[in-house]
């Protein structure tokens, strides 16, 4: 049998991940077996093991894609903005969450809804899977640091209140996004635009009238 080219190997890995994501989104992590993933992908039962050592490795790959979807837009804004507000940072992520598809780390289009359903399931994995917890904590601290830096620059620019502790404020921003994610997946909150408008209104400076067009 001829050796797989790097491009073909990457394409096969993407097919396995896409099949796993569909299974996880539909049936959950623990109700899905590696043979289930193989069947979904239309390959032999042992084929997934040529690309991933275990189901946990596939879960980590999908979780990484899911949380990049949520937080990469914030990190990009935080890196370039000098006067971003808390509302601006949240809005950057909500815009990505309102899309139908997103590009994953391998450059493939992925349904956002599938990723979000997998993201919610990942939280329970953090309580039992040390590798998942370590990856999540590393990512969490990186994003939190980016947001805190953006809030400090916002304070210098006068767009973030001086009384805000940037480290605590960063957790608030992440908490808003985690909360939206859970409500969207579990309770059908799909009005991303309305949610963003409400955040903008709630986070306005006290006493400043709402001048946004309605």
Mean pLDDT across all amino acids: 87
Please summarize the sheet with the most strands.
2 strands, antiparallel
Backbone structural class: mainly alpha
SSE arrangement, N to C: HHHHEEHHHH
Spatial ordering of strands, largest sheet: 1-2
* Percent of residues in helices: 55-70%
What's the total count of β strands? 2
What characteristic shape results from the CA principal axes? elongated
Strand residues, percent:
under 5%
Note the total helix count.
8
Report the C-alpha radius of gyration, rounded. 20 Å
pLDDT under 50 segments (min length 5)? Answer: 206-210
Descriptive account of the structure:
The protein has helices spanning 6-27, 34-41, 55-80, 86-97, 112-125, 130-157, 166-187, 192-202; strands spanning 101-103, 109-111. The longest helix is centred in the C-terminal third of the chain and has 28 residues, at 130-157. The protein is mostly helical and 214 residues long. Mean pLDDT is 87; it is low at 206-210. 67% of the residues lie in helices and 3% in strands.
SSE order and pairing:
Layout lengths: L5 H22 L6 H8 L13 H26 L5 H12 L3 E3 L5 E3 H14 L4 H28 L8 H22 L4 H11 L12
Antiparallel strand pairs: 1-2
Helix pairs in contact: 1-2, 1-5, 3-4, 3-5, 3-6, 4-7, 4-8, 6-7
Question: What's the quick description here?
Answer:
The chain has 214 residues and is mainly α. 67% of the residues lie in helices and 3% in strands.
């Amino acid at each position: 049998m001829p050796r797989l080219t790097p491009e073909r190997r990457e394409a096969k890995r993407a097919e396995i991940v896409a099949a796993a994501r569909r299974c996880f989104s539909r049936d959950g992590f623990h109700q899905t077996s590696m043979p289930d993933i193989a069947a979904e992908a239309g390959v032999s039962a042992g084929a997934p093991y040529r690309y991933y050592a275990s189901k946990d490795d596939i879960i980590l790959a999908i979780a990484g894609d899911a949380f990049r979807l949520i937080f990469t837009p914030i990190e990009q804004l935080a890196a370039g903005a000098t006067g971003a507000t808390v509302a601006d940072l949240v809005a950057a992520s909500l815009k990505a969450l309102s899309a139908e598809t997103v590009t994953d780390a391998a450059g493939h289009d992925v349904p956002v809804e599938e990723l979000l359903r997998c993201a919610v399931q990942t939280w329970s994995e953090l309580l039992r899977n040390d590798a998942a917890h370590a990856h999540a904590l590393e990512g969490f601290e990186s994003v939190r640091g980016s947001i805190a830096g953006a809030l400090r620059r916002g304070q210098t620019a006068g767009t973030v209140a001086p009384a805000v502790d940037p480290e605590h404020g960063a957790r608030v921003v992440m908490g808003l996004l985690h909360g939206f994610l859970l409500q969207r997946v579990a309770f059908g909150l799909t009005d991303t635009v309305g949610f963003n408008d409400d955040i903008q209104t709630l986070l306005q400076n006290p006493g400043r009238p709402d001048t946004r067009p309605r």
